[in-house]
């Protein structure tokens, strides 16, 4: 990297000006991505060569470092023990990126084994999820690869997938289900792929990557990350013969590349001139007792909705299993099921159900908060507020507010007012019981603490920090965006 490299972060540089000023790293990378996306969209069969120079370009590495350094895991060390703050203090960012660039360019760079960390799966099942924590150097190179590869493959991805894609979110997937459920697609294949991230076949995945990437040096780098191995919590080394370890920056993109074969298969009928491409053609199929279906996928979680029958979904399930088999993937026998929307099903933390509106004979598709995320948020609050806790109340309120604000903002588009009220009631009582035990208060002491001279109750507070009330969050309906979801690279172009 040249010693006169432009500053990182949001600092003002000459690239913010016009004229003959040098182009800064962010703008340069954005323009590069816009060109790659435009070329990929214009020619679906094009295989890109000479991408390696873009991966180790100084601007790409600067932007990649910025994304790694501003991530919450910047202070988490990989298998080599280095963290972002330590590199900044002991090595220096410029020298670190300069050395990393020379290693990549010369072909000497080798990914290190990812450090394994097991975390409990949500729901209290007792099962754990294996996360892989790459080294900081590996994270930067993965981020650089993603900056180059993502705009190319985004040109091929179908609009029915929403997970880990730019400008898309879980609420778009829920809105899609709500829309088609309202239109009569009420039989649902609620699918679960068993250990998806751990089971993806490397050969099949690399074949998908080669469909767009011709540069052997980039392919070699991607494969090296897949084969890097795992350093277990016990200090043992394990080979990674399959899968893309969760936790890596590149893993979600590689998973989407692999699972795009499912999107292409199930969405083919919706393409122009396809048998489900227009409302008239879908009506003709329905009159002939042929089903129409719609896939909605978020990473490895997906549902298939149909306006046909459960038998149609049973046949479609076998067809999907055959599509997934070459990828080394299979359905979870215990979690995959076919249900009618009147029974309800959980997806991305929401409970979606077709039911009768109270006091009428009209039926609608409703979106509620599922039981599991509500139990999960209560468990977090319970862990923070044991009766014997001596934690500072102000720090405790700040942490609880962070949890409840984020949780309520995610679920504010569901029918959630009653659940928010329950959460407020639960949180208030947990803190009150903790304070009663801590200070050996009676109820009259609680009233003295939380009421004013008129007897009116006020929120729990400490040193200017009030307990957040989830009931104050307005419930709003999420606007269905459909094909109007913006593309960042088209805007940049």
From TrEMBL:
Q: What is its EC number?
A: 2.7.7.49
For the keyword Cytoplasm, the answer is: no
Q: Show where the Reverse transcriptase domain sits.
A: 100-352
Instruction: Say which enzyme class the record assigns.
Output: transferase
* Start and end residues of each stretch annotated as Disordered: 1-26
Cross-referenced NCBIfam families: group_II_RT_mat
Q: What is this protein called?
A: Group II intron reverse transcriptase/maturase
